[in-house]
TrEMBL record:
It comes from the Eukaryota. PANTHER family: CHROMOBOX PROTEIN. Its main location: nucleus. The keyword Nucleus applies. Keywords: Nucleus. It comes from Paramuricea clavata. This is Uncharacterized protein. InterPro entries: Chromo-like_dom_sf, Chromo/chromo_shadow_dom, Chromo_domain, Chromodomain_CS, Heterochromatin_chromo-domain.
Length: 226
C-alpha cells in the first residue's frame, strides 16, 4: 500500500506529536548566532493498517511500516495519516498472493475444526486488513458487536474447493457445518520482556499478533440421507 506519512526519525509511538510540537527556532553558536534551516521532510511508507482504536474520542491506527519489522509497529493519530489511507481502512486493497495465503490458512482451520470433536473456538492467524477486505459489510453482528455471523454465501468469493464445509469418511458419513459461522477478530501481543539498553533495563518492543476466533456447530450428515 503505497501511502506516505509525515516526517519521523524511525517508527515509534507518538513521534508525530513530538515532531509537531517542535519549533524551527533551532540555533547553533558561532561568532554570531545564526538560524539553522529545518531538515527536509523524511517520509516513511505504510505497508498496511492493522487495527483501529478510539482513545478520548480520537481514532488511532496501528501501522505496519514498509520494510520494518512487526516489532516496529506503532499507534498513530488519524490526523497524521493521509486521507486516502483512512478512506480505505474498512475495505483495504490487499496483494493477491497475501490474500490467498490468509484464506488458505482460514480454510485449513475450518477443516481441522470440522474433523475435531473439540468444542472451543479455533484460533487462526489471519491478517486483520485481509479480514476487513474479505468480510466488511457481510454477515450479522453479534449483540456485543465483537463477532460476526456468516452464512455460506459470504464465503462465495474465495474459490474454496467444492464441499469445503463437509467432512466425510469413505462411506459418505460425517459432519457438515451448520451455519452460521461465528468469527471474531482478536488482536494480542507478544509477551512482555525487558532488555538492557545502555546499561538500563528497558521494556522490549512487542509484536502484534492478528488472529481470528472461528466457531460453528458440527451437524451429522450422510450421503444416504440426501
Amino acid at each position: 500500500m503505497a501511502e506516505r506519512l509525515s516526517p519521523r526519525d524511525r517508527p515509534r509511538t507518538g513521534y508525530y506529536k513530538q515532531l509537531h510540537n517542535l519549533t524551527t527556532d533551532i540555533l547553533y553558536k558561532t561568532k554570531t548566532e545564526k538560524r539553522r534551516k529545518p531538515p527536509e521532510d523524511i517520509f516513511y511508507e505504510v505497508e498496511r493498517i492493522i487495527s483501529r482504536r478510539v482513545i478520548n474520542r480520537t481514532n488511532k491506527y496501528l501501522i505496519k511500516w514498509k520494510n520494518y519489522s512487526l516489532f516496529n509497529c506503532s499507534w498513530e493519530d488519524e490526523e497524521d495519516l493521509t486521507p486516502d489511507l483512512i478512506r480505505t481502512y474498512d475495505r483495504p486493497p490487499v496483494n493477491t498472493e497475501r490474500l490467498h495465503a490468509n484464506l488458505d490458512t482460514l480454510l485449513q482451520a475450518i477443516v481441522v475444526k470440522l474433523k475435531s470433536k473439540a468444542r472451543p473456538p479455533s484460533s487462526v492467524s489471519f491478517h486483520h486488513d485481509c479480514y476487513r477486505h474479505c468480510f466488511y459489510g457481510k454477515g450479522r453482528l453479534s449483540q456485543d458487536g465483537k463477532s460476526v455471523f456468516l452464512d455460506r454465501h459470504d464465503f462465495g468469493d474465495f474459490n474454496y474447493f467444492t464441499g469445503w464445509d463437509h467432512c466425510l469418511d469413505t462411506n459418505g458419513d460425517g459432519v457438515i457445518i451448520k451455519y452460521p459461522i461465528k468469527i471474531r477478530s482478536l488482536l494480542s501481543w507478544s509477551p512482555k520482556v525487558s532488555v538492557i539498553q545502555n546499561r538500563i533495563l528497558t521494556p522490549a518492543p512487542r509484536m502484534p499478533q492478528e488472529k481470528l476466533l472461528v466457531d460453528f456447530i458440527r451437524q451429522p450428515f450422510s450421503v444416504l440421507s440426501t
